[in-house]
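Contributing: when you submit paired examples, paste them exactly as shown. First protein:
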Amino acid sequence: MSLDAAARTHPGKVRSSNEDAWVCRPAAGLFAVIDGMGGEQAGEVAAAIAVAAVAEVPDVPELAGETVLAQALRVARDRILAEADADRGKEGMGAVGTALRFDDRGGVVAWAHVGDSRAYLVGADGVRQLTHDHLADAAPGKKRQVARDLGRRDLQGDWVETGRSRVARGDLLVLCSDGLHDMVPAEELGRELVRLRADGRPADAAATRLVGMALAAGGTDNVTVVVIRVGRFRRGAAPARPWAGVLSGLALVAVAVGLWFAYGRSGGRAELPSVVSAESLLGAPGELVVPSATHTEVRSGGVLRVTGQRITGGDWIVGVGGNADVQLDRDVLDLERDLSLELSEGGEVLVRDVRVEGGRLRLVVPKGARAILEHVRLREEGALVIEGDGLVSRRDVGVIPEESVVPSGVEPPLSAPPPAAPSPAAPAPGPAAGAPP
């Protein structure tokens, strides 16, 4: 069984046009729902621009899905603003959207998100909303408006929400515009998603059913749904690897040690777990103080994420079991000694957007394990140590330029995301990518 996916859309019962669009490419493991804003024609234009940017995402297994999807949404914003500058009649147009990408062996999905479209994961333990609605505060009785969209000029910092989650065969993933979740009450929608997962109906039938629920509830907005029933998946462009047989059937394990150079130094201090066997998130921006000689064991199936922290203190040894995730994202390392990530066979690490200002980052990557390093900056060459003969993929790893070293106690400036590589022109939107014919 492979990925079974389908997209369905409808303008609704009130509006004459449909400003929604989608990407649905099961063979590439790439999906998105985009909701255009800003008037009939302008909203459609913004949605088409955003869909084209997502459709250009490179089908490269070594690049983390969050990285390429977030960059695609940034590119979409740049293009939407450029189009509005060129045609003042389109000023104010924008779009919200959620994009999802399967990693190369299909056990993990990554997403990037802006606005109030949503991604749901329906598994054996129930329904989980993966994304958060980006909405502004409103007076009582008033509808809350979108606080982030791809047409805003005032977005700063890390405004694209990203994440990743493990999936299993039989799980259901649902992307939708607000035309579904605004119309159908949360409890009713949750019950239906659980039922759709359990009855095993094809993705196209499930998507049709969800659109029908929105219309039955009033259908006052465009509604678009992409449904993916998880099966076997391996990215077609993935190169053969000598240890592929060993890892067959294992989900992608990611250890992300990250910094977006805009780290928070205020806030509370998180407690370090000694054992992680489910999902654990240390995500409130602040300072993470590591006591001397701290050990954390991430067992098979466990996920540990550390996001937006300045990590200080003594040695921290993290054991990463087979089929386990450790993600350290948008952090600064300023340890007295080492952060050691010691993988077992079948483990993988993702070290992304990291600044090592003190101590060392030590990776132990045995055969049958993998490490992915993206946008890592080191105080000095010896601040990164890699041991073992597993697979290590590097992208933009280097020493911090002398002039950009920030004295202790001084906040570094915000760093803009790296520019997108030139991409070929995207195909015209069609049934596989974009609005329906």
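Second protein:
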Amino acid sequence: MRKLKNEELERKTIDEFKKASKTPLNLILDDIRSLNNIGSVFRSADAFLIKKIYLCGITATPPHRDIHKTALGATDSVAWEYSKTVLEIIEKLQNNGVSVWAIEQTEKSMILNKFQPKKNTEYAFVLGNEVRGVSQEVINTCGQTLEIPQFGTKHSLNISVTAGLVLWDFFTKMKH
């Protein structure tokens, strides 16, 4: 078996990406400190044709060389918007019929593998700060949480890993 060359992968151009039908999922990054994490989330969002990324609070915005280092140009393809306040974005999306879920460990969280997105419904997933996670106020506003099951000694995953897992899970469930 032979490794494929980049030109054999038949990837979209930025213009084709912008015109392509999107996965009905938005990501909300709330108070993300690491520019590398932000860039990595952009890159994963590009891979799965995510509709939009909302950058909130202290989360840095493109253009920035440290975001670009891991995004590898995905900040040019994936739509994004900045808001100082995460609650404004959540309420705006909810008022437009978007189902907003926090990705967090809570008393009544739904385990990711049991989550089944509804067809013809747009979603948004909130990813929180690397140390504090998603705030209680945001959890209360969302009203619903998804949790990635974990079985080791650590109680959390890196935000970029979390984003990759939930994006892949959502994408595969919506495409099948």
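If you have annotations for the second protein, write them as plain sentences, like these:
The domain at 15-175 is CATH 3.40.1280.10 (Alpha/beta knot).
The chain is about 35% helix and 20% strand.
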